[in-house]
Amino acid sequence: MFHCIPHNMGDILGDAIMGKLTAVAIKNAPPGKHEDGSGLRLVKRADGAGQWVLRVTIHGRRREMGLGGLKSVSLKEARELAAHFRGLAAKGTDPIREREHEKREAARNLHLLADVSIDAFESRKAELKGDGKAGRWFSPLELHVLPKLGRVPIADIDQRDIRDALAPIWHIKAATAKKAADRLNIVLNHAAALGLDVDLQAVAKAKALLGRQRHTVKSIPSLPWQDVPAFYATLEEATVTHLALRLTGWQRCAASWWPHGCIARSWSVWHAPATLGLRGHRCRPPGDGSRSCAGANARSRVF
Fold it and tell me: How much is the pTM?
């Protein structure tokens, strides 16, 4: 003969009956311990909050483990968690250690690509010029990979994700795409060194999916000499870039017109020996016509 048990009382496990508590009973329950059955207990406080606790026996020892607060874990969820952990205990697995292991795995798999990329960059700064402050090492990732994959756990990234991120620039910006791929490969190796579960062949596989690059390198045309004075006149700022361009213009002017070693330079004046047959031709760095030529001798040309 079978005895029917109302569904809200759960099932029978051993000699204990699951499902003693109800939502109404929990709401009206006074502070204290309230048993639901089979080791599941609600510990309620005077302020109305409470904590779910499961008591299990593991290798002959009685253990207690928290299942969460009353506000965040419902009665139904508490029963489901209790059933899961009791099942582990029945198989001889310590549910407390198993949960800690699951938490570690979850935390390990939540390392985002953006975070690991920054960590990899920080670890390589000593190898980069000026500690990488110019941003050249990190910019290919920052501009072309992280906007699409930065918020993705690095353990979840595969070759298809990388292919989709690099496809828009793979052929039209081949050099940049290659740098981005190489940097991403370094980040993946850094993640592996951290103990994260990543596919170290993902970048190579992505390159295979993208195929051979069709980009043809095109040289940037040089500035016509007629436009040099006007361009030089714009280099007025006291920045490293402007100063470097001004100096490069002077040196290039001298080096391209005369054999190496035949130009003598003082602080502000270039001198070309008269033996070069340039008598009557006076030349200076563009825009420097106001500089004094007092240091030049009669048999030299001032630049």
Answer: 0.45
